[in-house]
From TrEMBL:
Complexes and interactors: Heterodimer of a catalytic heavy chain and a regulatory light chain.
One function term, GO molecular function aspect: glutamate-cysteine ligase catalytic subunit binding
Magnesium listed as a keyword: no
A GO CC term attached to the entry: glutamate-cysteine ligase complex
Entry similarity comment: Belongs to the aldo/keto reductase family. Glutamate--cysteine ligase light chain subfamily.
SUPFAM superfamilies: NAD(P)-linked oxidoreductase
Protein name: GCS light chain
Pathway: Sulfur metabolism; glutathione biosynthesis; glutathione from L-cysteine and L-glutamate: step 1/2
Keyword Coiled coil part of the UniProt annotation: no
Gene3D superfamilies associated with the record: NADP-dependent oxidoreductase domain
Annotated keywords: Glutathione biosynthesis
Organism name: Parnassius mnemosyne
GO biological process assignments: glutathione biosynthetic process
Entry superkingdom: Eukaryota
Amino acid sequence: MLKSASKVTINTGNVLNLIDIKKKAGQNVTEELSESIKLTLSEWGTQNGAPIQNGTINDDNHPRTSHNNSNYMVVSTSTAPREAVLNITRPHDDVQNKMAEEERKNLKIGVKIFINEDSTIALKECLENVFTALRTEFIENVILAYNPDILYKEEPRDDTNTSLRNTFPKVSPISLGSNVGRLPSTEMEADSEADARKCEAILPGIKVLWAVLEDYVKEGRVQQLGVADVGGGCLRKLHGWARVKPTIAQINLASCCVVPPSLHAFCRANDVQLLTHADPPDLLSLAAVKTLSDAGVGCNNLDWCARYQVHIKCRGVLALKGYVCKATLGNGIESKK
């Protein structure tokens, strides 16, 4: 019985082989992650002799969890002092089989890390979990999505904007449309001011995390680095400061309508690939509420989450896709840098 564990790590494995995910074509990122976590909890619970419905253990010998405790078994512990970590994986996952179908040189692994704290320990833990899940010695590219709570914790929830964000189509790579040239100068100036305010809030944290990623590049375990949701000015500052320059920049067009001219110009001049995405900035909290919290596990926010995708290079085919996430249960001890 889990009484002292403060953390849980969930590895969904290859979500492309989950029938329930396939049936729900067109679902947004939050729905995909939430459904994947629910199915992982259910499958793991059944395998361990405690049937789980909607992520909650429910039988005579395993009473339902409350918001302050959990009845999952501890299968391993982390090296952090006084921190018991429950690791949950899908027992019938096919990640290793998919990885073995092709030679490693024919595969390209891309990872996007969602994290809201500038914790070096958390970032390292996240990456090591991905390496363990894929059993690979190196990763082609890692994109950092750093969204500290300060950016949105006081903003009211806008269902209209949420719907737009979750349904906005992905385009890769992006080109600067002709509409940008017709933007009023006042609007461009406002965008620059907003970019400066956001950069002031997030750049210090990005630098802390980026230094960790640079060490992985130095060790040959990661080949390229990228960053999500920073404006042209912030990307310029990061690029000038970093030892390992960002080669990928992701932007959520649902939140800005057009590509900021300064961002597009900088990426073009510095050989930075500019891509779009449809990941909400509050993905960690949304996914937690839709899965762990609703299941009575006592979690309102994921500590971090990594999405890994493996493509077959010569064909551009997506071979597998999955998530590894970590959450704090109840009032567990925080792991800081």
